[in-house]
Write a structure and sequence with these properties.
Helices cover 0% and strands 53% of the residues. The chain is an all-beta fold and 111 residues long. The strands form two sheets. Strands 2, 4, 5, 6, 9, 10 and 11 form a seven-stranded mixed sheet that branches. The chain has a four-stranded antiparallel sheet with strand order 1-3-8-7, with no helix packed on it.
């Protein structure tokens, strides 16, 4: 399994932006699909975005046009650029690669 460490969360006003990072260690990520998920209080964890090794991307309908997932294989890192943030985006955001999950980073969007 690979260790994943997220960073970049924080508190932002509605309409603002944040960029999350997920750094992988112990294994190169270039050949693997990676994804972002989130879990709001009292809700189940849900899919946000994914990127394949071929740089194909997929997004949840709720974030399409606002979030962008990308990867830098040289840095063994993926990113989630989040723009036009809404209070409904408030959640703990998790990075995933196969069966490996990061510890999560909190994103709070105030109205």
């Amino acid at each position: 399994q690979v260790q994943l460490v997220e960073s970049g969360g924080g508190l932002v006003q509605a309409g603002g932006s944040l960029r999350l990072s997920c750094a992988a260690s112990e294994r190169t990520i270039s050949n693997y699909a990676m994804g972002w998920f989130r879990q709001a209080p009292g809700k189940e964890r849900e899919f946000v975005a994914a990127i394949t090794s071929a740089i194909s991307t997929n997004y949840a309908d709720s974030v399409k046009g606002r979030f962008t997932i990308s990867r830098d294989n040289a840095k063994n890192t993926i990113y989630l650029q989040m723009n036009s943030l809404k209070p409904a985006d408030t959640a703990v955001y998790y990075c995933r690669s196969g069966a490996s999950w990061g510890q999560g980073t909190q994103v709070t969007v105030s109205s």
